[in-house]
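[User]
Um, tokens okay?
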Amino acid sequence: MIRVENLSYTYEGEASPALEGITLEIPRGIHLGIIGPNGCGKTTFARHLNGLLPTTRGDVRVEEMSTKNPSDLYRIRQLVGMVFQNPDNQIVGMTVMEDVAFGPGNLKLPAEEIVHRVQEALARVGLESYGDRAPHALSNGEKQLVCMAGVLAMKPRYIILDEPTAYLDPSGRKRVLEVVQKLHARGITIIHITHHMDEIVGADRILVMERGRIIMNERPGVVFSNVALLKKVGLDVPEVTELMWRLERMGNPVRTDVLTLDEACRELNTRLTHAKPQSHKG
């Protein structure tokens, strides 16, 4: 697992810390969502998990390797891959195959192994026939899938997604999220930062961050049922959850931990059935 103990971080020239006293365990195989208002420290936290930012106060350990130990960083960055918001900032190859091969090539692997990893990674994101294409000619969604393939070619156990759908249209967003679900189903740990609450309603746990601290670490139903708290820190909630919250505030005895339309329909149908007046003969 990834263990974070009392992690704090202040950017040079800033008076207030970007992170303050973060302690957390991220078990293998989990799907962890991270939400919070802009500037709350989400990306800063994520960049500590694979050593992209130096751990100056506190400790970050990836399967007992420390990000403070320079000799561990090489292996940590293989295990913990990261996909950023803008795919154009991550692509370095002239062709899709060349780009996906960049990471494995730096490991000095045999050519046959590199080719195998590239083909396998492209197949896992649904781009197996894209190897000879130029990345700049692809849609943003396809570019983001290429970036994900590049991470997969490194054989990671953890993948950090830092708002990966921010630059995508609905079609591209759907394709990326489908791949994320498939990767999680195969046992890869997903750490997903997003402003789209509907993207993480199926997560195992959600962290809510504010001003460099974790203010909530719970199941999605528990997190999103705290509508007042989320709105107070400037966050949205899934529309269905807000609907149930408003109904409950109007005096209707409905669950507020509902996350999907199907759940809401079942809950409302149950309540309506129980509310039907009983007929009496006589």
About this structure: The beta strands are 2-9, 19-26, 31-35, 57-62, 65-66, 80-83, 158-162, 189-193, 205-210, 213-218. The radius of gyration is 22 Å. The chain has two domains: 2-92+158-236, 238-276. Residues 238-276 form one domain.
